[in-house]
Structures are given as structure tokens and as C-alpha cells.
Amino acid sequence: MNTEINACSYHSDPHFNVFKVPQWRADMYKFLSVRLWGNIPSPLQRRLSKVYSSLYDKPFSKRFIAPYVKLNYSDENYLEKFKPPFGKNDYDSFQDFFIREFKSLPMTASKMVWPCEGLLCDVNYVSNITTTKVKCDERQVETVFGVDKESIPDNYTFTNVFLHNKNYHRIHAPVNGTITRIQHVPGDLVVLRPWIYKQNPSLPAFRNERVNIDIVDEENRTWYLSIVGGPAVGTIELPENIQLNATVGKLDEIALFYLGSTCCMASPVAPRFHEKNTFVEVGASY
Asked: Can you tell me the mean pLDDT for 77-81?
């Protein structure tokens, strides 16, 4: 049976109290991420990340799953709503657990839904998102989505959902529509965790490797999605049916991550039930 999503049930995630991390510690983490790791050439970052992430593909890593679930989820039956990926009968590695699939997708009557699960770490009108300095370049919010300056209307809303390692890591279509653009943007793989950037939690989205997908909905409005990778990301993978001019239904899967991720979106409407630093789930009313 499908799971009914109740928008009123969503909440601040108590596990994200790390936003209270002292400024000195956040500055240290930012220095390590941006000034040290961030200055390593991007191709080398990717090679190192692939070596690290490959450990999670090894058969021994499946031993981590049971203690990880016990440590991170209060629901002892958490895994019951998921299944191993790609038709497997069991999780053969920790990576299989990380890219787990829903047995049945959540049900919702809403025409607009959240495409992913995680912490809503940034939300604002596009016109209010300030430029970000990346390696001496001034970058606007349009840079995230790979479009020209002022291509996205000022009254659109920018959101950034940080997917913690424990979160479900597949991305779904937020609306019914047609895919009008797919773009791969090479870039860095700096740390994604938003609490180390304090006043600019979306900084990694301006510089990291990402895949951008535009969906034009049934009212002819464009929804811009940016699927952003971070350290240890082996790849961002799109299903075979996700192609230019393809039709997608609400909650159709459009991408998955192999470790570490953020999902940004520029949408024609603002979230109705969620504020910054609250937890969102796949299928929750947008």
C-alpha cells in the first residue's frame, strides 16, 4: 500500500542542531573545505572521491547497514518501506542501502510536491539571492542552474535541500510536465554541509559539479532543478527515460546520487508548508 503524505506533519529535524556549531568551528571547516580541498584541481577531487566511495561498493560494507539504521532512525521498521535497488533481493553493500528504492511511492493529492528528502537549508526569492564569489568570479543564482543572468524571473523562489547521508537519495519530478533541458556542469566537489557556510548555505551549489534539469509544467511554467554533487560522489545517474522532450509524471524518478548531495530548485511558486531549516520529504505538498 502506498504511504499517504500529510503536509501538516513536517517538522524541524532535531538531528540538525549542528546549526548551533560555534562560528570558529564553522570557519575552520569552511577553510578546510574551500581553501584547502577546494583548491585541489577538480579532476583530482573526482578521482579521490571515486576511490573513497568505492569502499562502499565492497561486500564487507553491508555490515554497516544494521548499526547505521539503529543509530540514525528512531523507527525500528524504517527499512520496511524500502527495497534494495535494481531488482536485487538483498543489500549487497552499503551503497545499495544508500540508493535504496521505495517499495511504493508516497501518495499525495497535491499537484506540486517536494522532489527529495532532507533539510531545507535555504529558501528565498530569486531576486533576494546575493551573488557569490567563487575563485575570484562573481556568480549569480542563475549560475547554479546554468542559464543566463536574469533568465529566471525575480518572483521565482530558490530552494536548497541538503541531503544528509542518512536521507533517501533519489530525486523525483515535483510536477507533471515535459523535460526541456538537461545539462551537465563540471565543477568542484567541496563539502555540502550547510552549517559550515553560515550566511551562505548554498555556496557549494554555485561551484560544485551538477546536473540541471528543466521541467515545463502543465501551466507552461518552468521548474529549474539542479542536482549537486559533493565529496565522495561517485556519480549522478539519470534513468534511461529521462531525456530531452520526455514527458514525466509527478514523482517519477529523475536522478539518483551515489553518496553526498544537494538538490536546488527555482520554482514559480513558494513552498506553502515549509520554512528554512525544516525537514522535507519526497511527495510532501510543496
From this structure: 86
